User: Fold these one by one.
Assistant:
Number 1:
Amino acid sequence: MALRKVKTENGWVQGAPSGNTAVSVFRSIPYAAPPIGANRWKAPQPHDNWDGVYDAGRFHPIAAQAIEDHAFYSNEFYRFREEMDEDCLYLNIWTPAVSAEEKLPVMFFIHGGGFRSGYSYEIYEDGDAYGRNGVILITFDYRLGCLGYLAHPLLTGESEHQASGNYGLLDQIAALKWVRRNIAAFGGDPDNITISGQSAGSVSVLNMVTSPLTEGNIAKAIMQSGGGYGGNRLCTIPMLSLTEAEKVGEDVFELLGVHTLEEARALPWQRIVEAELTYSNSHNGFLFAPVADGYTQPVSCDDAIEALQVRNIPYIVGMNANENGSYAAVAVEPEEAYRRQVRAMLGDHADAFLEVIGMDEDPICAAAHGGLSDMIQPVMLAWCDFMAKQKDRRPSYLYYFNRDMPGDDHVGAYHSAELWYTFKSIHRCWRPMQGIDYHLADVMNAYWCNFARTGDPNGKGLPHWTPYSSANRAGMELGERIGMLDDPGAARTHFLRDYIMGRI
């Protein structure tokens, strides 16, 4: 029977079976003090010790966040709304270990949601399959939106590091370091932690492997549909400078009608979330996300990559075939609006790109297949291209997920669809899954677990996955077919990759 009672640095915790006796789950263990009151917009503080045994048998309310009514994703993942609270710094541990001496590999997963939404126990987040494959899974909550990423001159001024805005990222780092200090008691190996994330969680992984604050804490990393390398030309989520972020913060304070930190910290969190939503709806872009603050992130992620100030560890990076979804899942931009977006993004290269995507022949199709796909797919390929050119770098393994999700809505391999498979939780999905889906989930979860163990996804009975190289621009196709695929992605993706890499 897996461990049920474990002593952490703060005291004893009591877990429960995760569907079976082979895996235990410890829900909502606090990894830092509640970020409320005077701790709002401060780096996470140590949690007090507790007496007796902490009951880790149920999940805590999720991080405070604005409820965004996205018709597709609300139906796909968020059919049930969870209770929210500003007190949110908790993590979950699934472990199959029967003793503290096992030194099992650890998967540390960061949820997505545009840094505005999401939580640590979404319907796909189940550690049972990882546990059955001998891997400990960690999921956790971190501050989101305005509560997690507000910069302001007053906050910068009170900081000993003269920085503000990266509180959610500091939460992630605090959770990672808590795991490093405590995971041995759960049967894990503190020197074998793989950080992984999807979408904004993947951008978070990129921030983690380029932050000086994580040095020595990460053995391997997985980036799913986010992060990558944009060459300061194209980014999944562009990073604001501290000055730019502080200006946003000043606007938010004005909207809230506050002038001091004391006034702002006295407001109920609901007021702040409402102001965030109002402000975001009237401005474009990701305004509450990691900031190049000079401390947590001394420079932008692209600048750090180009200076090779990025962890030299093995990576899995990848993308989905239809990041932007299908006609059924997305609102297609009007033709002229899309042309303006392309010209703003590509400047003198816009006409060539519009020709490649067939904008004049079929503008609706050309626009529909852009969006997230044009922002995500090229940066994942460019990461592999850039790293392959560096000497003495550990390998990057590229994947291309292209399973058309079952159902009569024809959503394709949409953004985040692969999560059902990497977690092997497709039994929780409402879609009419087929035999191929269960097989694909077996394979993908095995690849991810093998990588967590050794830094190499390959294993017995699996199609061989070769690292990406300048001579072999290949990735693992994960869909109805499972096998290596030369230079994955459409012509538009290759154009944007070459644009990032300065080849056009």
Number 2:
Amino acid sequence: MNFKIKKINESTIKLLDTTPEIDLELSEAYTYKIPNFAAMRKNARYKNWNGKVNLYNRTTKSLDYGHWFDLYTNFTKQRGYDIELDESLIPDKKLDKEELVKIIDEHIQPRNDSGDLIVPYDYQIDAIHHAIDTDRSVILSATSSGKSLIIYCLCWLYINCILEDYDGYITIIVPDKGLVEQMYSDFHTYSNGESDNWCQKLNSDYSKIITKKVVISTFQTMIKMDDLIDETSVMIVDEVHRSKAKQLKTILQLAKQAKYKHGLTGTLDGVEANETLIKGLFGNVVRFVTQRELIDSGRACDVVVNIIGLRYPKDLVDQYNEEWEFSKQTSPHIDKYQFEVDFINNCKERNDMLLDIVEMAEGNSFVLFNRVESHGLKLYEQYKEKHPDSTYLITGDIKNRKDVLDTFKKDSNSVLFATSSIMSTGVSVNNLHNLFFATSQKAKVATLQSIGRLMRLHDSKSVANVYDIVDIIGKNNVTQKHVDERIKHYESEQIKYTVTIVDI
């Protein structure tokens, strides 16, 4: 039994000559279940839905482009099918690795802040070569491994070696405006200013007129640029684990002329549904370097996670239990995790101890929180009263984030209070010595990427410290359980950790 895979455009493939039996197998193979479906079922709108998303459309017999390779190599072989492949799907060989290295050495010649030549690491060369060679890729490379250099080299190669003159734009999509500025600045540094001639920033602060070959934008701005999407030949997405965002997914599917699509990230969340979606948009995932490999090779600073369990006294435990019972009676649908976070955020004794631990840490520190008004601002203001000249704050309302970070970088023993999202969006502070998780979380990406930012090399540190604060309120409270998930993440990346219990 055989069927055909036909390329419709750069976003979609179509299957021809399938039977109803094959269609059913395809539908089952390319179906995933929404991970938070149990919570969604509480909404009446979803009561008749089974929580499954079918990627294969049995009516149009279509599938996201990125699945073709898996379909061709795995699906058909596992079932013994013969398949006829549209030759336009097969990437052309462009550069062998030796030729690539020569081009980087003789022509690209990236430079650092001091103007010295950068010699890319082996894993960066491998990632660049893989992307160029496959046309579609998901590059998994640990946080602090130099992904912006990989992106810069890809852009140079597409402009000078692969694309025809005026053959569409190269668009780079990053999560927020701060990263637009950072990526543009990195390109300026790598090229000794020459990238200003062929690269431009695009967000709400800049003109929407496209005058350069390479455009760096947020997906929030990009979604409004229909002509740019239509005329993009190369689309590169940094922090690609965010592709589950509806707007970003839409952009990628609308980019029907973008023959080359690449996504980069330091960490994927391990959720099958999300990884299946990313593969469909970009292609297969390939890991090039882990955090542990970076550390062991001397290319990143070692990290120790200090798990500090704050054990609450009996009076606070009793108060917690009483308030929880009262909340359940007055608000039957109350979420226990949200209740617990509220209790913790408003516990003066807990927050006093947290700030005492922050004060004892040597070097520059980040203190990360999730809720601004009810927690982060209170911590910041309390600490600033005692340390007015060395305490900083970054939230979504802070417009001059770059200026704050630049000032912080010049210090040697300061504390910056910030929302957790700052560490998941490419912030670069080399002389960062300590990281405090002031709010419980279990998300793999947020946890590991935050730690990855701490690993950047600097003369002032040999080992960086993470302080993972765990609230022990009686037995098996919700936030206490989260640490079990974080420990799994630490162990998966071979990150050292210790556990200490202290009484509040």
Number 3:
Amino acid sequence: MDFFKFDGEVWQRLLTLLNYDSASPMTLASGFFLFAFMVFGIGYMAVRNRRMARTIYVSLISLYFYYKISGLFVLLLLFVATSDYLIGQRIAKRRDEGKRTRGWVTLSMIINILILSYFKIGGLFEEALNNLFGNGTINLGEILVPAGVSFFVFQSMSYIIDLSRGVINPVKRYLDYLFLLSFFPKVFLGPLVRNKEFIPQIERENIIVTRDDIGRSVALVSSGLIKYAVISKAIDTLLLIPAVSGDFGDSGVVMLVALYAFGIRLYCDFSGYSDIAIGIALALGYKLPDNFDAPFKSATITEFWRRWHISLSSWLRDYLYISLGGNRKGRFRTYMNLTITMFVCAMWHKVNLPYVVWGMLQGVGLALHKLWLEKVSGSKALGKDMKRGWRIAATLFLFNFMTFTWPMICMDTWEGVVDIYTKIFTNFAAGDFIALTHKAGFALVLVVIGYAMHFMPKRFNGILTGWVTRSGFVGQLLLLVVTIWIVMQAQMMLAGDGGLPVYAAF
């Protein structure tokens, strides 16, 4: 009978499993998630080929994981799912009857845009009103941004738009739509999925996971964990934070090294998470789209945005740029549409002056490149179409151009941006690089490793994935165990410097 007795410590641990910890939200790289996912996997094997049971099981687990990530904001996710499911059913009915659907589409867009606006620009709205009517007139309190709010809201908006365009048919059940929005590998940081490609995966009866799927899944999760939880975190903690805070001095060479480090840190953070999400989904029998394709290999700014955060870039193109008129309204409107699209992209990430300027700069860059393609005979949109010498030169130019725009992303104020540029151009002090290698040598090694992984020829990824597939269950398990051990060692080394990754609030 003692076996069934629970003392206070056991109950406390159970409550810890159920409660949301705002000081340490769950991530896909946390020990808790890895343990919980293994437990979840046991149950999943029992229901994976029973469609309704699978949908209910995965949806409930997804909501639980989202609660562990963002607390009671899970209710917001449920609200968006319920609202747009009901609106979607109404749109589908009116579409079948040959009636207009614009009013219902507009209602959905208003609801979703208001949600995004509150969390993204609520603070700016409050400040503007107080400046206009007197300080203290409006008090919204501290606005906490739910993790992944932009991802599930954008996903829901695309569903409504696709329905109105006749691209897809409505989901059969509310639970199917809840699955679409909440599916835990992608709900936090994406990637955004195409409804016409993912909904059929939800509605199929049986799940088939091949040997190649398992091999690719293990390879993706392992590489993603190394990029996301080791390289990105360590560069941030050991190099970027000390550099910005002045621990390494105020010389321009420190700032320049930090900028080049920030680029690969940003890439490893976001692409690493995407790899983990895609790999986990693949192991469960669901295919998510690739989200990054070695963006720093791009030779033009157009190519960069086809390789960087592919699912978001294509979403903005299909649902915003084209809706604005795309390139169908003349040259000037095309350039304006590009600029507006990148402005929205910047606002989607962060609402402050430096980030907005960065977004506008990207839009102007895309417009100028489009003009270049129209006016310069023989110019190419993609690096693969260029001669080798031109491709290398163009790639180096674009890489350095993007690097010198990073201050607008990593600094919250324009004064901070100017300060970085001022140090680079007025107090470079190249000799300080030697001292930096002594203070942050390990982080610099990780920067080199990160870029080496990024610039590795694509065929090598195929070779490594093939090796993982051929290694069988024992080899794959060993790879995961070693990877998790490395991650745990890195987390212990960097203990006390926690916090969410750079895109956690998006």
